[in-house]
Design a protein that fits this description.
Layout lengths: L17 H14 L12 H8 L3 H13 L24 H8 L4 E7 L4 H16 L7 E9 L9 E2 L7 H26 L5 E9 L5 E6 L3 E6 L1 E9 L2 E9 L4 E4 L7 H20 L2 E2 L6
Helix pairs in contact: 1-3, 2-3, 4-5, 5-6
């Protein structure tokens, strides 16, 4: 999110009000995930020292962020806290970047394909190679995607439900990005950049109703798939299909003091769901026979 300053943001002397500058800095902190949703901001006295301003300036800045729904409404006796919904709308790359700050990275993923994940991981791998970020000591990634054998119901050609071309196209996408993800991670191990790397991708005989990312044992992202009509290009022809689509991730974190027992229980249930399918039903993703 970019903050734009217009004429209404300036005072009569043409200067940006101090409280807006403070709000801009705190907004950037929140968008960078520090503090995380549900966690508290520093006390007002600390903010006054950080920004070298008075209490009134800090209070006006905090109220502005409450108006933007980035902070929870004030509760007597408790400091300002980041709203749990403040992280909604952040792209996957934001969470993957934060995950790679840990010395031991773990990702368990259930998704329609790994296009977003592959690109986000490739970005982190390149930063590590360039020396722009420290390499973790270990990386473990397990991914579940729809298998390449089952006749999945979506995507479906609206005019010809028996047309297999949309499904074959999805299979190619699944396989292509799975291979890209696998390559970008194993290359880090081959180069000796990361000491321990494990990446496995398996298929399930079903399509997901939602996508899940379990990150470093402390954070869960959930995105829900809905059906939409769209046009795709197959064999140089444009056809209308019904396909699965998801565009928003809802985060839950077990970090800090913000996690509730219900969130911890949900995380444990989703992890158990993933593990049970990984161990009993999922099969290695085979090469495409086309």
């Amino acid at each position: 999110m970019t903050t734009h300053i217009n004429g209404a943001d300036r005072d009569e002397a043409g200067e940006i009000p101090r409280y807006r500058l403070v709000a801009d800095a705190l907004r950037q902190d929140i968008q960078n995930g520090v503090p995380a949703p549900g966690e508290g901001l520093p006390k007002q006295e600390q903010l006054m020292r950080r920004f070298r301003c008075g209490r009134g300036t800090v209070q006006k800045a905090l109220q502005l962020l409450r108006d933007e729904q980035l902070l929870e409404e004030g509760v007597p006796g408790r400091g300002a806290r980041v709203a749990r919904q403040a992280a909604i709308g952040r792209p996957l790359v934001h969470y993957v970047s934060r995950a790679f700050e840990a010395p031991h990275v773990s990702l368990d993923v259930w998704s329609l394909h790994t296009e977003e994940l592959s690109r986000a991981v490739q970005q982190q791998a390149e930063l590590i190679r360039l020396g722009d970020r420290a390499a973790p000591r270990s990386i473990r990634v397990r991914v579940l995607v729809p298998d390449l054998d089952t006749h999945h119901p979506y995507p479906r050609h609206l005019d010809d439900p028996d047309d297999m071309r949309p499904l074959r196209r999805l299979r190619r996408v699944i396989r292509m990005y799975a291979e890209a993800l696998h390559h970008s991670l194993t290359q880090l191990a081959e180069e000796g950049t990361v000491g321990s790397v494990s990446v496995e991708i398996r298929g399930l005989p079903t399509v997901p109703g939602e996508k899940r990312y379990l990150i470093n044992g402390t954070q869960m992202l959930t995105g829900y798939y809905f059906l939409r009509k769209t046009r795709i290009l197959v064999d140089a022809a444009s056809i209308e299909v019904l396909e699965l689509h998801s565009d928003t991730l809802f985060p839950a974190t077990l970090e800090g003091n913000g996690a509730r027992p219900l969130e911890r229980a949900e995380f444990q249930q989703v992890q158990a769901w993933f593990d049970s399918r990984w161990e009993t039903v999922a099969t290695p993703l085979r090469p495409l026979d086309e």
